[in-house]
Amino acid sequence: MLIFYVLIVLNVLNGAYKLKAFTHHYSILFVSVPCAGAGGWSPLVSDRYQWLEVDLGRRTQITAVATQGRYGSSDWLTAYVLMFSDTGHNWRQHRQEDSLGAFPGNSNADTVVQYKLEQPVIARFLRLIPLDWNPTGRIGLRLEIYGCRYTSSVASFDGSSSLVYRLSVRASWTVMETISLKFKTLKNSGTLLHAEGQRDHSLTLVLEKGKLLLYHQQGRTLTLLVSLGSLLDDQHWHHVKLERLSTHLNLTVDKNTQQVHTPAELSHCHGLQKPILSNRNFHGCLENLLYSDINLIDLAKHSSPQVTVVGNVTFSCAEPVSVAVTFTDSHSFLQLPGLTSWSTGPVSVTLQFRTWNKAGLLLTFGLPQQDGSVFLYLSQARLRLQISKPGRVSLELSAGSGLNDGQWHYVELNFKHDHLSITVDKDEGATAHISISLPLTSDSQLFFGGKNTYVCPSSGCPTQESSQDCKNPFTVFQGCMRLLTLDDQIVDLIKVQQRLLGNYSHLQIDMCGIIDRCSPSHCEHGGMCSQSWSTFHCNCSDSGYRGATCHSSIYEQSCEAYKHKGNTSGHYYIDVDGSGPIKPQLIYCNMTDDRTWMVIQHNNTELTRVQSSTERNQHFAYFDYSSEEEQLAAAISQSEHCEQELSYHCRKSRLFNTLDGAPFSWWVGGPGPGLIQTSWGGELSGSRQCACSLQDSCLDSSHYCNCDADYDQWTEDSGLLTHKETLPVRSLVLGDIHRPGSEAAYRVGPLRCHGDKNFWNAAFFDKETSYLHFPTFQGELNADISFLFKTTSSSGVFLENLGIRDFIRIELSSSMEVIFSFDVGNGPLEVRVKTSVPLNDSRWHRVRAERNVKEASLRVDNFPAATHEAPADGLVHLQLNSQLFIGGTASRQKGFLGCIRSLQLNGVTLDLEERAKITPGVLPGCPGHCSSYGSLCQNEGRCEEKANGFSCNCGQSAYTGAFCHNEVSASFKSTTSITYILKEPFELSRNSSALPSSIYSDITLRGENISLSFSTNQSPALLLYVSSFYREYLILLINKHDELELRYKLHSSRDVETLRSRVINLADGRLHTVIIRRLADTVSVQVNTNARMIRNLSSPSVSPFFVFLSLHSESDGLDAELAGLASLGFTGCLSGVRFNSISPLKAALLHHDSPVIVTGPLVQSSCGSSSPANTYAAETTHSLSGTVDPGQPLVNTIRSDSALIGGVIAVVIFVTLSALAVTARFMCSRKETYRNQEVKAAQPEDSNEFPFSGQPDSPSAASENQKEYFI
Q1: Interval 405-437: pLDDT, tens
Q2: Superkingdom, according to UniProt (predicted)?
Q3: Is 519 within the bounds of a domain?
Q4: Which letter does DSSP use for residue 958 in this model?
């Protein structure tokens, strides 16, 4: 270890102090710096233009610096910047964590503050620039630098030279080969090395536009393997390492590494045959060029025969001096005076610039004789020249494009003989011309970069009074410039820095401070990175992710999660690991029943015929899945249950034959390449048996599979594979197919999984002092946290993880506010979301928090997200070291009371349930989901709790589906009718416990609750006919004016009362919805979304016994008009028909055990839905030719998960006349009793429902013996 001390002042110029450093190995030697007082360095003027420069005498490995205030004073630094250089020019600012450039200094004059550099810096020169100092004192400093001697082997190449390395003896193959080097250059292109393998394969590492590209070449085919690094033409040393490990390569540039796979022909690459390509040679310096620990530069330097030197290679690094200047902010500008020759001769100005910004003012100057100005600027990444004169239209020229790519671009402005031209990038660019007179004089002032508010080229910086006339309409330039010339005379920027030439403000001279914020890219998951001078932006379009860095997935992690957002069956993108590296996959989610199935297809789910062949002994089948390997593994792992159908249809084709001999057939399944499995569907893994042996139903009891009986007839062995560790099926081998007469067919179904272990993983915290703890959260640069919670408490900490200074925490601060807080070293930051509704309502609420290098964000449910931008040049690494606490804190204060579910950190689910099982005060699981998800059950479906989740009971709904959302629709013809028969109470009394209580409420009606949808072109048309034995009825029809008409007759001796809707054109073939509510004599009718129509019937409040609900040609008891209408029937579509608690159409189509009789053609269809029927589940297969055996598999069928009901189902049969007579006589004796009862009519409210009595009005309800509905 060497300690360097600043000893002697070499030069003092305008605040710039250049010092010589000496080293001492054994003792500390302090020598005061003789400037501005004793005890340390203190410049005469304390401002930000001061610096202290140290020459260490040779390139040294610097490991740490220490600062102290000036002895016996109030002078010390509170913040400073370090810069390093090999030559005393082309400085490079040292940054911590790739972003923070400033070092905290001292708090007094005596304490020593030492900083160890994260990575040692190799340099000869060090420059310390004060940023802030004690406000009551001055700049003051004592400095120590710690480091080690550094030795290296260096070679310089001039663009036409190279080294060629050949092994003298053919080396044996090794597991790993490595080549490493350092390089520095001002050229942005050139080949660094070239290595050849077998059969004309080679690798080439090329510098192109400041990036390193690794190519693989075979013959004339060139393939780019990887691109790494950026701005590598900055004349600073860059480290490169190329490692070959078996079948892949690791390429490292500075601190970034990428891995690529390589062809097998390069696995036996014996050294570097041609490090440099002759046609694109490298121009610059190489250092420590090592091939498997062999120093090739040393070999070349000592004239080893293994290394051939081609061209002019020198063993030192001769660096050209190129002084650049950096325009850092809106206050940066450089002012240069004009030349005396401009008054009489041509004018030429050239410069090179590099920037990321699309816009910026490069140069402006005035035209005093014409009272005008010239502006050379970037706009939309093009170079433009504008000449402005009062009272005239501005003249403009433009050239070039894409000039904000960070590369150096050459600009030349020439004016000669009334001819003006601008050129961009010489031969590779473009030139624009114009004829105009631009008189310039020696008094002209050139401003480079401009100022944010004012630019006055003709008279220098403006005064406050003249500022209005000098306003700059252009964006200031942020970037670097170099090689400025005026009439081919290069501008000495060092003189500018020393205030000997021109003027400047807020410039960094003798360095280019450009940073590539997209290399390496912070944009994840394929997000495209773009940047400006001060920030970067990620375009997440088409990536499937969102956020400032495309970190968080926009997709759910399972079909279960989609279902609980109210989605129905269909194709969905599933991101099984959220923000993790696994890509989203398109999967079909089947949500038609209580279980939500994830269906993953492969390339052959069809029943496939295998013909016998004497030429081959085995048939091989391979299955490629629509999901990638890691997607499959993750989907299977997180599912509660997976299964895959495996069936083998055989005729004289055996599967296993015996338990002792080798099996004829097997299949391969499981993760990765899979393992051989010798059991068939439904049996235990490895048993070499089939499902029939488990069920003791094999055709031949001496065999364990039906096919092993070897019968000359078709049979099969089928079943479900349910052991997750053996799924999915990857290949199939069938062996007994070569004998004459052998025939077989097989089918491997899609992989089906249900249940999401992560989605329902929950824990209940019943004490404020209880918590769960997990290992430290690893989220240094990107952290996303998501979970669901429900509570009745108004506050509590959900999550906390601490470091020495850093921390991260999410808490419920009040019943309507969630706070996400953290500290990465820049001070605590908080992101708050305030909700408009209480969060302690014992319902599930979702929280999503994300923190990355750009911003922090917090989302709660669907409320607007809150964000907080990260500091531009702050610390970015979140450094934690304690345990992660869930539901509480390490101090056991402010604990959370309630449930936390589905907690995921960076896409990884924490197993709360397993940890809760062994933690006092915390219970695994959390019941009660209907309070949150019950609203998903539609159309009067009833939410039912399950251990993990809920289900919708659609028994009392006219709809079906996971959420009772699928309308049951059918197409009707004029001869179609449905009869729904109910037994009457006197018959039910013998078995009343077997039927639901809702039946009773449908017998004696104080009112009706009717809903249906229809579409037809028929007018007039009878939609609904409900009648009793006593000529009481309800009729719903479309009249001849295409209007909806409702007719009530509630008393046989009263007239019919008719209600007509104001809605017209109902026979237009479109779907219309009708809702009818009657309570006593109050009726409401609503058509589609129109306002409800409410009417009071004039008939007294009676309770008719409706028996028939019909839509067919039966016309008994109807007047002539209605009888004629009934004879026409109904042609069209009916959907979602419901009469109180009865859904007759649903019962007819789906519940075949219901008392339903159908007449005429009735076909279930999607006519009642705007979306087409789902046909995804249909799978067509190949046909078997020839005669079909009774047991032969039918492979020309179509499989479907949904049942299709069609054709003629049944015939309506009316009860016998004698039964009607007996019933009528019995009911007549009771009828007057009902009619004398007074029923107080309830006035309708604003709700959509009317209350109905749940029981018959009187025991006399038993007087009717049957009730029928006809549609």
Answers
A1: 999 999 999 988 788 889 999 876 688 888 887
A2: Eukaryota
A3: no
A4: S
